[in-house]
Specification:
622 residues; alpha/beta
Length: 622
């Protein structure tokens, strides 16, 4: 029997609400981590997977506290240790590899110095031995020229190289247990594959146990021996990785796997409806009841226990798991037919476009040109028709985002032309574009942390496009916002959360969704989406967000332009998305008259160009 490195027993973690009520975000969680084992923890944002992983190194987030249970590392309860005792374990016995290595590394310190700090803290090596160990660690994580790499700063490395440095720092103390918090999020598919292969090698070479936290089931499948699936603060399924992925006997896991696209099946993957319940909102019954197709009255009244299924070597929390055993052969996406847009009008045309990041010299600024013999992007020719969906794919640094930013006017072109609607040439200078063009072409950024003001509330952020492009304010603007928030933002946020600064929102999916809405709610003709579902969406939400964004575009039938991570097989979906334009409606069937009026107003403003004329027509129509 393998040695157990860490054991979690009946762990519950919670917080006190403003009314003084004790609310749990982890409930009665129990699991074991064996020596040399890699365990993947998956679940939607807010499921408690990161809270559990951090508790396993004795860390509880500010505002939370343990309600009951233990986290035993080699028979010692981490949750009862003092800070000084934990210092002797963290880094030396238990180490963590962060999600964003670029933010975790100190920008003004060289790589070698930062690894040396870890060696000083967690080993007894002298200076000569530490210098040798730095080279060994950099070599182990397969960085080229370790001696040279040690003298570089973090900004001089690519994202994948930064992640490898973070792995080297974590290995400095020769830990028994590694915690990995989504270490491949945001990396391109090739770099991600290299990092995952490196982690497999380290686990095999060193015998280190690993806990891999991720929303990416593909990554989890590649590195994990065992998978723990969490939902609403509970473990709902646990077992060998192969069994969980091939025979998911919990409806939540079944839904997650149905959300994964397959290159063999062209079509949009089915996303699960609804969202997780807010902490403290479930008083009785199964937490997955509202989203489950197999739910019965028994599920509504009673909460299932985590039951061990001996023949499958799996633990499951579901009364009706046997019904799924016969359905597992049908784990495939629905197929949609591709529409033909060959006769559609051309909306956007890039002709011989070259883009450079070179700084303009004095005379170049006077002549408004860029002199660069080796531009970043060269001789790009793209024709995009109304209602057509184009996918731009490639590794990091291939120029995808550069092209998008240039179309949006954020980067000047060196050569070539960008034509928009009836061969009208767009200025490459954002300041020279008219307000209608600014509204018509919208860019959705990948990282909401960089595109949203953390001090502004969701309500303030959604109100900005209405004020900026339509000069709307007052009660009418507020009624539009109320319905936008009700229909869209409340998929991830409570009403109270829409009134707090976005920087205080914990739910990553909610923050990402708020980053999408402002660009979509003003009826743009063209949307440029820069890997908008890659930086934190779980599988179901990622592909559930795709039809949502397409339906926004349909109000003003035009172009939807995507840049996608092709590593998840989404290229087949992008090729099929065009059939949704013209076939979907943005407004739900049960939408209120106010929202319908708001949509009609936006359409009239686009048609007439003046708010006063649009309001007059709307008043007569309504």
């Amino acid at each position: 029997m393998s040695e157990i490195i860490e054991s979690v027993k009946n762990l519950s973690i919670g917080f006190n609400s403003q009314k003084g009520k004790q609310i749990s975000i982890l409930r009665n969680v129990s699991t074991n981590i064996k020596k040399g084992e890699t365990v993947g923890i998956v679940g939607e944002s807010g499921s408690g997977k990161s809270t559990l992983a951090l508790a396993m190194m004795g860390y509880i987030k500010q505002g939370l506290f343990p309600l009951k249970g233990e986290c035993l590392f080699k028979s010692e309860d981490l949750l009862k240790m003092s800070s000084r005792q934990l210092e002797k374990i963290r880094g030396r016995k238990i180490a963590m590899i962060p999600q964003n290595a670029g933010q975790a590394l100190t920008p003004n310190l060289k790589i070698g110095y930062q690894i040396d700090e870890a060696l000083k803290l967690h080993t007894d090596l002298n200076k000569t031995e530490r210098d040798k160990k730095i080279s060994e660690l950099l070599h182990k994580v397969r960085l080229p020229s370790p001696e040279t790499m040690a003298f570089r700063y973090p900004h001089e490395l690519s994202g994948g190289q930064q992640q490898r440095v973070a792995v080297a720092m974590a290995l400095a103390g020769k830990p028994d247990l590694l915690l990995l918090d989504e270490p491949t999020t945001g990396l391109d598919v090739t770099t991600q594959a290299h990092v995952l292969e490196l982690l497999r090698f380290i686990a095999k070479d060193t015998g280190t146990s690993m806990i891999y936290v991720s929303h990416d089931l593909g990554a989890i499948a590649q590195v994990s021996d065992r998978i723990v699936v969490m939902y609403a603060g509970e473990i709902v399924l646990e077992g060998p990785a192969r069994k969980i992925l091939k025979e998911p006997i919990h409806p939540y896991t079944y839904g997650l796997l149905k959300s994964i696209p397959k290159l063999s099946l062209a079509g949009l993957p089915a996303s699960m409806p609804g969202s997780q319940p807010q902490p403290g909102s479930i008083n009785e019954g199964c937490s997955f009841y509202d989203r489950c197709n197999l739910a019965t009255d028994n599920c509504k009244k009673n909460s299932p226990d985590l039951e061990h299924i001996k023949e499958l070597d799996t633990n499951v929390r579901c009364f009706n798991y046997k019904e799924l055993i016969n359905q597992n052969n049908n784990l495939q996406t629905s197929i949609t037919k591709k529409s033909n847009n060959s006769e559609a009008n051309e909306v956007l045309k890039l002709k011989d476009v070259s883009i450079s990041y070179a700084k303009q010299k004095f005379f170049d600024q006077l002549l408004n040109k860029i002199s660069d013999q080796n531009p970043t992007v060269k001789d790009i020719n793209i024709d995009i028709k109304k209602g057509e969906t184009i996918a731009l794919v490639g590794e990091s640094g291939s120029g995808k985002s550069t092209i998008l930013k240039s179309i949006a006017g954020l980067l000047k072109t060196k050569d070539g032309q960008i034509k928009f609607e009836n061969d009208r040439i767009l200025s490459s200078d954002l300041k020279m574009r008219n307000p209608n063009d600014l509204r018509a072409i919208q860019l959705i950024f990948q990282n909401p942390d960089e595109s949203l003001n953390p001090n502004h509330t969701v309500e303030q952020i959604l109100s900005q496009p209405l004020k900026l492009y339509f000069n709307l304010s007052g009660d009418f603007s507020q009624s539009i916002l109320d319905h936008e928030i009700k229909i869209n933002a409340n998929a991830f946020l409570s009403v109270d959360e829409t009134l707090i600064p976005t920087g205080e929102i914990v739910n990553v999916e909610a923050t990402l969704s708020v980053g999408v809405y402002p660009s979509s709610m003003i009826s743009p003709i063209t949307i440029l989406a820069d890997t908008s579902t890659s930086a934190g969406f779980n599988t179901s939400t990622s592909y559930g967000c795709t039809p949502l964004t397409v339906t926004f575009t349909n109000n003003n039938p035009g172009l939807m332009y995507y840049e996608w991570d092709f590593g998840n097989g989404t290229i087949s979906n992008v090729e099929e998305l065009s059939n949704l334009v013209g076939g979907c409606t943005f407004t739900p069937q049960n939408a209120s008259d106010t929202l319908i009026a708001a949509q009609r107003l936006v359409s009239l403003i686009t048609e007439k160009g003046k708010l006063g004329s649009a309001l007059s027509i709307l008043k007569n129509e309504m």
